[in-house]
Structure formats: C-alpha cells, structure tokens
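Need tokens for this chain, all 101 residues.
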Amino acid sequence: MTVDPVWFVALSAVLFAIGAAGVLVRRNALVVLLSIEIMLNAGNLALVGFSRVHGAHDGQVFAITVMAIAASEVVVGLGIVVALSHMRRELDTDELAELHG
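Here are the structure tokens for all 101 residues:
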C-alpha cells in the first residue's frame, strides 16, 4: 500500500501554516522556537515525501541535515532564553526586538 505524495505535501503545508501562525501570533520566546521547529519539520516531511516518490535518497539525507541544524538552533535559542530569563522576569518578544549589549 503506497501513500499518494499529495498527502505528504498537504500535511506539510498544514504543519507549516500552524508553525507560521505560531510565530506571528505568540509573544512567548519558547513558543516561537517551538513554532519554528514545526515549520522545519514540515519542510522535512515534504523532502522525505518527494524523495520517496522519486526513488532517491537525497531528500532524506538533506532532511537529516536540517534536523541537525534545527537541534543546534534550539540549543542556541534556549541558551539565549535562559540568559535573558536570568536578567528579566518576563520574556516578551516585542520587547526583545532590540537587544542591548
């Protein structure tokens, strides 16, 4: 039983839209990071779906690379959030638009 690639693309588009809405609507920095992760996973799903259709493994290798980059992004993002939480009580992304060094 094979799954039609349209379903991969449709699910990927829905996940990407949910992630984009989370980035645009939420003010909490952790929710914004989680929404970015959802968007990256939507891209990974599309890559794996297209590579499965074409019978090549290039998309799967690229998806693993994107996962490694996403993991490093989470580490850096959480480090920034923890450092800022030690200085302030509330992490509002609107107030963090201009970081003062």
